[in-house]
Design goal:
8 strands; two-stranded antiparallel ribbon; alpha+beta; single chain; 6 helices; globular; six-stranded antiparallel sheet
């Protein structure tokens, strides 16, 4: 399980250091793709394969399925850590996420998220203000068998 928040900066070659705490679980090769809410998602190869299998179960006749699948897969990039725990963020993903230099890497249970620092701070502030309401809504979902 990935958890925690770590602040880093891209180097001159747009490489990002993966926090050492995440490296063993992530592995040397992983997938980075467009995420939701303006961030990038980072998946282990095993988790990525599970996602691909789940996507295959969705009906391709539905426009939303085709659109989501195409967008997610076309933005995905297989990445490798170097011996210092860094990897280059692909240019298209930098543009999508708005990451220029400073970023935040967060653990999000089964994946990592990479955020532009200013976007993370704005999102975190907004989420913090509604944290208790979200907890209550999630409890109701669990009680009623979402």
């Amino acid at each position: 399980m990935f958890m925690g928040e770590y602040r880093h900066s891209l180097d001159s070659k747009n490489r990002l250091i993966i926090p050492s705490r995440f490296r063993d679980e992530l592995g040397e090769t992983f997938v980075v793709t467009k995420g939701l809410d303006g961030c990038l998602y980072v998946y282990t190869l095993n988790q990525w394969e599970l996602i691909c299998e789940q996507l295959k179960q969705l009906p391709y006749t539905k426009k939303a399925v085709r659109q989501y699948k195409r967008h997610l897969m076309s933005k995905a990039s297989e990445c490798n850590l170097d011996n210092q725990g860094r990897f280059p963020l692909p240019k298209n993903l930098l543009e999508i996420s708005g990451i220029e230099k400073k970023c935040v890497v967060i653990g999000a249970d089964d994946h990592l998220e990479i955020w532009a620092e200013d976007q993370w701070e704005a999102y975190d502030l907004e989420a913090n203000e509604s944290f208790e309401d979200a907890a209550e809504a999630l409890t109701e979902l669990l009680e009623h068998g979402a």
